[in-house]
Amino acid sequence: MTEAVQQALIQHGIVLDTQALVSVSAIAGGLAAAVPFLPQAQRLAIGSFNGECTALASEFFRALAEFARGGFASINSADESPMPATAASSSPKRSDDLQSVLIEEWAGEVAGSTYLEEHFRIPRSTLHRWQRRNEVIALRKGGRKHVFPLAQFIDGRPASGISEVMSAIGNPRLAWFWLTRPSPQLRGRIPIEVLKQDMVCDVVSAARKFSST
User: Fold this and answer.
1) Of 130, 131, 125, 134, whose CA–CA distance to 144 is shortest?
2) Least confident of 62-71, 96-105, 145-154, 201-210
3) Residue scoring higher pLDDT (136 or 34)
4) How far lies 97's CA from each of 117, 122, 199, in Å?
5) Residue 108 — φ and ψ, nearest 5°?
């Protein structure tokens, strides 16, 4: 990663000292790792962006420096104003929509049973049976409604091994968070991708180690 960043900077006529290059490379790696977990709309927006990247980057690094000095909270609080009463008393539908956005920010693309039935041809009865058996990850949205991360499905079925992961970790939100992040127990590989390669034993063993720590 460091070499790739260095070559890109050289092409723009920029040369950094070793320490600055290491820091920039670490940030670039972190940003690249975060992109796959963004909602699709945000990924498309980034891909089509032709604005003032330099100005935005400068603002980003300014905020990052403030965060390193412990002043990030003061940056946010200075720009915040009290929430209007109309916003605080939003409708249940608006609250549900907000909750869905918050889920997608860390869980990736999710969908309800209607979408899965129409587009994945998964009957509701089958989906609910999988849910009862912990063979599929279901995330609560709002009151009693659940949504299902789409990345767990392969050929119209949840990846094998999810029930064992759920048994090891227990909480579906924590289980899905772990499944979609690089795992030290799997030498940096992403567990859900390893499950899709039918390497169930490796992932289950890693999930148990994660749960024990």
Assistant:
1) 131
2) 62-71
3) 136
4) 21, 24, 36
5) 80, -165
Q: Rounded to an integer, what distance in angstroms lies between the CA atom of residue 125 and that of residue 141?
A: 19
Amino acid at 132: R
Q: Per-residue pLDDT tens for 86-125? A: 333 344 444 444 444 478 788 899 999 999 999 999 999 9
Q: How far lies 133's CA from each of 2, 54, 77, 201, in Å?
A: 45, 50, 45, 19
Copy the structure tokens of residue 128. 């609910």
Which residues are CB-contacts of 33 (< 8 A; sequence separation ≥ 6)? 182
Domain segments of the chain: what residues? 2-79, 92-212
Local confidence band at 33 (pLDDT 50, 70, 90 cut-offs): low
Backbone angles phi, psi at 154, to 5 degrees: -140, 125
Where are the alpha helices (H) located in the chain, listed in sequence order? 2-11, 18-34, 40-47, 53-68, 72-79, 85-88, 92-107, 113-119, 124-132, 162-169, 172-179, 191-195, 200-212
